[in-house]
Structure formats: structure tokens, C-alpha cells
Amino acid sequence: MPLRNRVTPSGEIIATEARGLLYGNRGVLHDDGGRLVRAWQVRRWIACLLEFKGRRRDLLRPGRFTELFFLDEATALAAGHRPCAECRREDFLRFRQAWAETHPGASLRVDDIDRTLHAERTAPGGAKLLHEAKLGDLPDGSMVAENDRAWLVLGDELLAWSPFGYGERRLLPRSATVRTFTPPALIAVIQAGYEPGIHPTAQ
Q1: Taking a C-beta distance cutoff of 8 angstroms, is the pair 144, 138 a contact?
Q2: Which of 42, 34, 43 is closest to 63 using CA atoms?
Q3: Helices 184-191 and 89-102, packing angle to 10 deg
């Protein structure tokens, strides 16, 4: 039976047999029996490499952070996670440079970045915040909500997200107003040149 540890673009944590390209965490979410009891514990939501320096972990250990998995980086960003500053150091430095360009004068401390992201991804009560935008203003790699599904923006198309990859493709007028899963600050980072990794099924 698959564990409940896969993250959707809405930030929901589900159980699925699908495998992902990244993993990460947002604190200790499970109890001693391995059951998820909260959606997040800390503001530091990160996305990590699947393998780093040969480290191995048993999943859902009591009192240790809950291991989460993502289809790809576009999914992780949509949910509100950012690159890990340790195992993905080069990605994090590119991310922070793009953050500096889009947040002139703002602090570049990770705690302050995480505080900004948390305010954009989580509504009072813990629900996922969605933000309105014009489709034509969104960069490749951002994700939107349409017809109760998540869609990846790629070129002139929207690609339907699933835990296993991207499938159905559709077109919407670039003038259409959509609701974004990806927080505005992360959309700005992508627009500034940070290129999120996208699952090969998108190609």
C-alpha cells in the first residue's frame, strides 16, 4: 500500500504509487504510527535531490521530518516549496539571485524568503491560496487551476498534471484570467530566469 507522502500542485499530500523526481519536507507531519496529522509544521518548505552524498533514510521515523515527494520542480514550486540550500546549492543560488532581482532591497535570509512564501501559499486556517493572473503573463513552469484540475503552463498550451506525469493538452486565450497554484513571488522568480525542472512527460 503506498504511503501518503506525494505532494500535488495544490500542496495536498496524497497516497499514490507514482514516483517523483524530487523530495523534500515541511517539518514533522506524522505521528509515531506514521499517520499524517498536519499539513505543515514549519515555514521552511524545501525541495531536495532524491540522492545526496549517499545518505539513506527510513521513511516516517517517529519524531523526524516527514519525507515528501514531488513529480517535478514545477509541482514543488506550485505547492510553495523552494530549492534546498544544501543538496541543491547551485539551484538555490540561482533561485536567490532571481529573488534578489524581483525583490529589490528585500532581505535574502532564507527565513525571510520562507516567511514571504508562506504568506502567499497558505490562507488563514491552512487552505491553499490561489492568485489571479492573466494567462499570457505567466511563464513556462508555472501552474494554474482550471476545471478543478492542475495544469502546467508550457508554450501556448496547458498540460494536465497527474501524479504520473502530464497528459491532456488544451489551449486557452492568453487574455484569459486564471487562478495560479504557483505563488506570485515564485512566478516572478521564474520570469527572472530561474528555470524549474519539468517532468519529461511534458515533452
Answers
A1: yes
A2: 34
A3: 100
Which triple of cell numbers denotes residue 10? 495544490
Q: From 133, 20, 129, 112, select the one nearest 78 (Cα to Cα).
A: 129
For 10-26, the pLDDT digits (tens) are 999 999 999 899 999 99
pLDDT in tens, 158-184: 999 999 999 999 999 999 999 999 999
pLDDT band at 125 (very low <50, low <70, confident <90, very high): confident
pTM over 0.90: yes
